[in-house]
Amino acid sequence: MKIAIQNKICFEGEVEVVEEVRDVEVVEKGDFLYLTYHNDDKERVVLKVGEQQCSMTRFSEPKSVMQFMDAAITRTQIVTPVGIQHLNVVTDTYQRESNQVTIDYTLQIPQTGQDLAQYHLRIRWGNF
Which terminus of the chain is more exposed, N or C, with fewer CB under 10 A? Predict the structure, then answer.
């Protein structure tokens, strides 16, 4: 099975589209699907996908977790070249269809409310 990830990133007036296709392991537990794959850095990434929310855990050093819930704000920490940054994840839209999730979100500096970047993330999985 494969996972296809397309992420459109808007940062400081510029747009970048990142696309990747990976092998994925899919496990269903209760009301959630767990999609596990490895990224370019050989880190294990686990997506926990439900009808109303999704979490993305990257097993890096340190581990990073992002949660997406429709019209909600969550917190995350991301390792950057200048150190660990604590950010708000402002999810505008979370839509789950059968084998696809679409998420529109913004990473925001909590202290100032300043937007760092906007994202349109589409994740599909299946035999393709």
Answer: C
